Amino acid sequence: MFTDAPNFDVRDYLRLEMMPHFLCPGCGHGIALRALLWALHDLAIDKDKLAIVSGIGCAGRLSAYIDANTFHTTHGRPLAFATGLALARPDLHVVVISGDGDCLAIGGNHLIHACRRNLKLTCLMLNNEIYGMTGGQVSPTTAETRLTTTTPLGNNEPSFDACALASAAGAGFVGREVTRHVPKLKELMKAGLEHPGFAFIEVLTDCTEVYGRKNELGSSPEMIMRQKSDMRPSAYRNTVDTPFHPTSLPTGILMQNDRPEYGAAYRRAAALAAAKGAKK
Amino acid sequence: MSGSKLASVEAGEASAAPAPIARKTPFNVLIVGVGGQGVIMVSKVLAALAQWRGFEVKQSEVHGMAKRGGSVFSHVRFGERVWSPTIAKGEADVLIALEWAEGLRWLPYLKPATGIFICDTKRIVPPFACLNRKPGAPMRYSRETAEQVANYVAEGYAIDATTMAEELGNERAANVVLLGALSTALDFPIADWESTVSEFVPKKTIAVNLEAFRLGRTWIAEARSPAPATGTPPLLPLAEVPFTPRLEINAAWCKSCDICVKMCPERCLRLNDDRIAELANPEKCTGCRLCEWLCPDFAIRVHLEAQGKAAEEAAR
Question: Can you identify the CATH homologous superfamily of domain A11-279?
Fold first, then answer.
C-alpha cells in the first residue's frame, strides 16, 4: 500500500522556532502529532480557523509546537476550556490534545460530561500509560503488573478502557489507533474531525524513556514493533502472554452515531431566550 | 491451433436415456479462478452433466475463498471408473481459468502435449502485488502476454469473457461464457449442456446465461477456424514511471531514537558516527515513506522526484 503525500510537509504546520521539540527520543507523541497535522492538511482546515487546546503533560505540551491558535490550559481542564471556546466560536475547529492522566484522572469528570453533551469537538487522548513528565507515576491506564515510580512492586489496579468509557458516556464518535499505523491513524483523525458531534480518539503511543525503560520493554523501535504483535484488531484476539497493553484492544472507529449536537441546541435555546427578552 | 481430439460442434438432441460413452481413462478438467467468480458453479454444471451422461464423477474443490478474493480451484474427473479425486500435475485435459494470473499459476497441471488452456483475460490484482512499490511502478502481476503463453500450451485460448458477459448485460455470466468454451472440448450434446446450465443458474438469469453459453461456444469455434483469429486481446504493459526517492534528514532535529533504522522495510538507513540517521543504501530505498511517518521528531522528509528531472538538476 502506497500513500503518497506530495503536498504535505509537516513543517508548514509547526512553529519552527520551537523545534526540535522537548519530547524524549522515540516518544510516540511526535508520531501522533504528525498524524493530526496530516489529517488537518488533508481536510484543508485553515490554520486561522483551528484552535488547539491542551492540558498539562507530555501530550499537553504538543500544542506549543503547532502553528495555529493554541491554548495551553490547566491540568485536566482542556475539555472545559474547549467547551467554552466551541460554544462561543462555532466557526472554529476545536481540537483537544490530552494525555491519559490529564483526560481520565484529573479531567475524568470533564471527559464524561463532554461526551454526554456531544458538543462538536475533537478530543485526542494520547495514551502512553504513564505520567511521563512528572516522573513516571502510575496512571489510570497503566497495565496491571507494570512498574512505575509509584508502583515499585507492580501496578495491581485494573486499567481503564477509555473508549468504552467514552462510548458509555455518550460520545458521538469513538475511535482508537496505534502510532505504528500512521496512515490509518490519520484516516481515523480525519473521520473524527469531520464528525459533527463529540469525537473521542484514543491514540496508543509509546513512552520509551520512562515506561519502557522501567519495564524493560526495549528500545523505541522494539516498542513500536511490539505494537503490531500486541495490539491487534479485536477479531484476532491477543495471543501474547505478557502484552504491553492489558488486553487485546480493538482499533479503528469503535462507535459512531448521530446523537443531536449540543452547540446547535444551545444556540437555538439562546436565540429563543433572546427573542423572549425582546418581547418583554 | 486445431485440436485433433476435439469433438465437432454440431448440436444434438437431449437424449432421455443417455448411453454411457466409453472412456477408459478419466477425463480431467481443472477449473480455477478467484473467489466469487463462479468456479464452483462451473464445476457443478460439468460434474452434474457428466453424471447424467452415465460417468462416474469425482470432484474436489477448495471453497470459502469467495469472501477473501483468494485462489479457488476445482478438480473434475469423470470416466468409467475414477479413483483419485484430484488431478496430478501434467494430467489435466482442459484447464479453464476465470482469471489470467490464476490460469498461469495452474499451467503445470495441463497435459503438455494435448492439454487445452482456456483463459479469461480478466485481471484481478491481488493486494500483495501492490505492496512495496515505487509510485507508478508496475504491479507485480504476471507480465506474460497471451502470445508468450501460447508457446507453452498445446492449444490455448485467451478469451475476454468478462467483457463479453458485460455486453450481454451481466458481468457475472463470464463463467458461463467459459463453460460454453469448455463445451466444445467435450462430446456432450448441446441441449444437455443448456438444460444443465439452466438448472444451476438463478431462474431470472437463465436467458442471459444461455446466451453467454452460446457466445463462448461460437467464440471458440471462430477462434479455431483456420483464419488466425487467435482472439488474444493485447495486454497493455503498464507504464513505468521512474522515481528516485531522496531523503532530506534534518540532523538538528534527529534524536537518534533508531526507529527509522529498524523499521525501514529495506534496511537502507543507519545511524552515522554522530548517531544521526542517514541513508546508507540509497539504491535500495523504495520511497515508501515509513521512516518519514514514524519519525517522532519530524527529522526525515522523503522527496520523490521524477528521474528525468533529478538527472537534470544533478547536471546543473
Answer: Thiamin diphosphate (ThDP)-binding fold, Pyr/PP domains (3.40.50.970)
